[in-house]
Design brief:
Blueprint lengths: L1 H18 L2 H17 L10 E2 L2 E2 L2 E2 L7 H8 L1 H11 L21 H18 L7 E2 L2 E2 H17 L3 H17 L1 E2 L2 E2 L2 E3 L2 E2 L5 H18 L2 H18 L32 H16 L2 H13 L1 H6 L5 H11 L3 E6 L5 H12 L5 E6 L5 H4 L13 E6 L2 E2 L6 H7 L2
Parallel strand pairs: 10-11
Antiparallel strand pairs: 1-4, 2-3, 5-8, 6-7, 8-9, 10-12, 12-13
């Protein structure tokens, strides 16, 4: 599923940043590469899923036996490959087959077996592939765009940013009709109007893309969608958000679902998105809406916090110190890009990144830019609460402030 790949790849990218573990980074990159290679539509957005079974068997396309590997790599190299990737005669899956995995990571062996993996991939391409679900769903694409935007900076991979932008532009062009976000798209046909998770996840994705690129158009559209989300889904009396819009099909009861299952709940993502916009715009009304929404679920958070991890992140963002990272300079200049790269690579979960590039009226939209207009040399400020430090000009200085 697209949402599995998006969330898994981002978690491993974050783990790589926190620990410096090359194995985590490798997993993140391989998951992203799979999504870019196997799940990207020609238009640039992402398909929903591939089936687990092919030819009537679960996992047949993806798993291997020692004999199949030896046929491709030869007996000697095949045995060494099987030993490293945990492929045995008994198997770890059905019918004596194995899903490749690494019981103990070894960087030298990773390099050694890279050509072998390429050979196996080419051999696997000759198999009958599983069915492709080619729907383009806005919410799930939002998760992948967010993950790619984050990892483009955290792992220093520009093609992830490019892919995220391609997907976002497709959604902005083909999944918005008369200002209204749609649920999805398939083979030229637009879908029904979007639900809460579509608005919340795509708005969050556009904020992530703004931080990854500095392009104000993404911030503007993300903020616009968040405003629409409030209009269409908020419960103005009791707070929080319904899953369906005011003008969608009338149900016996409009649900408020804050449980984080296979995907984060729309309410949790909506709260975090409003808090991030509030931090950039100093709009306390948005902050209060998010706080009220989370307050409704206080007892559930206290009694079953692990059922709402995404909302816990929003609670932490609201209650703990938050860092506002402002970088001012000329986009594309080495000094500006070096500071931006340092901010994106730092492990600093309770933060927003604001990039002052001299765009018209940008300070009116993001008040953090007042008095911090771009000059001859790029500068960076880190603010915590109401206190901002002196500007720094070197990436290592900014990294030190964000530790």
């Amino acid at each position: 599923m697209l949402y599995d790949n998006a969330q898994l790849a981002r978690v491993y990218a974050e783990a790589a940043v926190v620990t410096g573990n090359a194995y985590y980074e490798r997993i993140s990159r391989e998951v992203f590469d799979y999504a870019l290679r196997e799940m990207t539509a020609p238009e640039g957005a992402f398909w929903s899923a591939t089936d687990a079974d092919s030819e009537g068997e679960e996992g047949k396309f993806f798993v291997w036996t020692p004999a199949e590997i030896a046929e491709v790599l030869g007996k000697h190299d095949g045995a060494a490959f099987c030993a490293y990737f945990g492929v045995t005669k008994e198997g770890n899956f059905e019918h004596g087959a194995s899903a490749l995995h690494v019981p103990e990571y070894d960087e030298a062996k990773e390099r050694r077996f890279k050509p072998a993996k390429a050979k196996l991939y080419e051999a696997r391409r000759k198999r009958i592939p599983p069915h492709l679900d080619d729907k383009i769903l806005v919410a799930w694409n939002g998760l992948m765009i967010s993950a790619l935007a984050y990892a483009s900076g955290a792992l220093g991979e520009p093609r992830y940013r490019e892919s995220a932008e391609n997907a976002a532009r497709f959604l902005m062009t083909h999944c918005v009709k008369e200002g209204r976000l749609l649920r999805g798209y398939r083979q030229g046909a637009m879908s029904v109007t979007g639900f809460l998770d579509d608005y919340a996840m795509f708005s969050a994705a556009l904020l992530d893309l703004y931080e990854a690129t500095g392009k104000l158009e993404y911030f503007r559209e993300g903020r616009r969608l968040a405003t629409e989300m409030i209009r269409l889904f908020e419960d103005p009396q009791d707070g929080a958000f319904f899953s369906t819009a005011t003008d969608q099909e009338k149900l016996i009861a409009r649900r408020k679902d804050a449980y984080d299952g296979a995907v984060p709940s729309g309410i949790s993502v909506a709260c975090m998105t409003l808090l991030r916009i509030a931090e950039l715009t100093d709009d306390d009304a948005l902050r209060q809406k998010a706080a009220k929404a989370m307050g409704i679920f206080r007892e559930r958070l206290e009694g079953a916090a692990l059922a709402q991890p995404e909302m816990l992140k929003a609670v932490a963002f609201l209650l703990r110190d938050r860092r506002e990272i402002v970088i001012s300079g000329k986009p594309g200049s080495p000094d500006f890009e070096a500071l931006a790269a340092a901010a994106r690579k730092a492990w600093c979960p309770n933060r927003v990144i604001a990039l002052a590039t001299g765009a018209p009226d940008e300070a009116k939209e993001i008040p953090l830019f007042f008095g911090r207009e771009p000059g001859e040399k790029a500068r960076a400020w880190v603010c915590v609460g109401e206190t901002c430090g002196l500007p720094v000009t070197k990436p290592e200085e900014l990294t030190g402030l964000l530790r």
